[in-house]
Amino acid sequence: MDKHEFLTKLERLYPSRFNVKDDRIKAELLSEYADVLTADYRIDYQKMWEILRDEYEFSTTPPTSFFKKNLPRCRMRELEINEIDNTKSIWVKFPWAGNMAYLYEVQMNESEADVLRRYLPKNWHWNFTLNRPERNEV
Questions:
Q1: What is the pTM assigned to this prediction?
Q2: Chain CA centroid to CA 94, Å
Q3: Domain coordinates in residue numbering, the chain
Q4: Which residues partner with 126 through β-bridges?
Q5: How open is the CA angle 120-122-125, to the nearest 5 degrees?
Q6: In this predicted model, what pLDDT tens digit does every residue of 110-136 receive, in sequence order?
């Protein structure tokens, strides 16, 4: 996930905050969030999204200070030279996100199922019989 995708998801999650009549005001709001999500290192926006989903407890739009405080936790780890030789790129479709596919760099022995298990949301579980994620029954 990149910064633009992250901001688009944030806008969809909190429509009341970004649904303003004046396009200039909306652009300023998005600009404030984009400025906070800028650092001198690569940011893992997927991890930032998980922090927002798992740790932010309010129904209102999170303030920019929430992202600024959690930004260091989302720093992408640079791969060592010997780790790069043992990686591959795979596309992973997330069923809880409308089957949107994201490109991941994983170790050679990892599969799409490993990535899906790593990012399971709270309302999903892993069905070991079918080897796939499923939504929890309510």
A1: 0.55
A2: 11
A3: 3-74, 81-135
A4: 133
A5: 55
A6: 889 888 888 888 888 888 888 889 988
